[in-house]
Amino acid sequence: MTVKSVKGFRDTLPGESNVWRRVEERIRGAFHTWGFQEILLPFLERTELFARSLGETTEVVEKQMYSFQDLRGESLSLRPEGTASAVRAYIENHLDQGDPIVRLFYTGPMFRYERPQKGRYRQFNQMGIELIGDPSPEADAEVLSLLDYLLAHVGVTDVTLAINNLGHAGCRPAYLDALRGYLASSREDLCADCLRKAEQNPMRVLDCKVEACIAVAAGAPSILDHVCAECRAHFEAVRALLDLNGVKYVVDPRIVRGLDYYVRTAFEATSSRLGAQNAVAAGGRYDGLVKALGGPDVPGLGFAIGMERLLALLPEDADVPSDRPSVAMVGAGSNEARQAAFLLADRLRRSGVAVGWGGGRSLKSQLRRADKAGASYVIILGDEELEKDEVVLRDMRHQSQERVPRARVGDILLRRLGLDETVKG
Ligand code: HAM
Question: Residue 355 is part of which domain span?
């Protein structure tokens, strides 16, 4: 019997991984241009870190964490997201003691025990940024502009950027009271889950996907009517900068986000092409989180892109770099000739030429395989070539071939494949 993968954990096969890495490189390049530096974070953290930062009553902490006790009885969890870890690392490594504004990015797998479906996995990958120490609306606009740029830069265009103002610890309680009052009057229409949330964490009701709850949410008081003057001014300044910068967005007062640390600006980038799990990226401001986790009183904000969803949105004809070997080596004849072919393939690879190796089959089957693999050139090295210290270099595209000295074939190929500058420079 074969052993299958774990539900919700998927393989990324060579064709897709190629596109993945190319997209990742592009995003990484933009992160660097925007001044973000990579932080490599552990996959495992103390459970307490997530409970304290994401919120005890959030779905992620209540139901979705891969938590276990280690041999000493300490509760540890696979990270369900990156912000908590980044903030923990910022505090633990005193990153606030250099430049007061710290820009970090991270990439890698996150783990949530959610019901798997299209676009929703139990292990998924994020590329995220955290900008810590900047309270200004320019920081919000910059982060949103970066996300807008990134999506377009990798070729994803039909995405809606929706933003909301969640207020802050000072003004949100008044809104929560108003919302609780409203929800109390619609109790009979709410699903069982929302009945529970209506008291504890009423904003979550606005996020429920059950039809009756959506109808209730549509008539709920809007947070935008309840935020204080400062939060309102901050949001207006962010919007003005986005408008000036030509970044398209909609204001959606129902964006509440599934994690408790957000204040003021919160946002989601969604696409109708993704189905039910429609957010390709999301984020917001989390002033207060660093302090709550025992660090200095500094603001922060950021976002994370879901890589699996981003890849699903790429156009069919996305220009995928070829992962085919440029050259196929065909060794034939005596053991010495095969050894010489093996050594030449190795030398070429060390100088930067991608070489496919035919293995020990017949000349005919090796040539057929080279053709099928789409190699641009085939090198044939048999006993006759070995004796003359030559190889046969066959140009597959032009269907021509020539004999060239064995010692020169590397330079010739580097030049013809346009690799001489990259490899030597
Ligand atoms: P989040 O909204 O939980 O935010 O996740 C961000 C993105 O990760 C989502 O928009 C989605 O694309 C992807 N994602 C989440 N769960 C899954 C899943 N089960 N399967 C596939 N993709 C998924 C955060 O994680 C925050 N830490 C973002 C942030 C950074 N806020 C501030 N800084």
Answer: 327-414
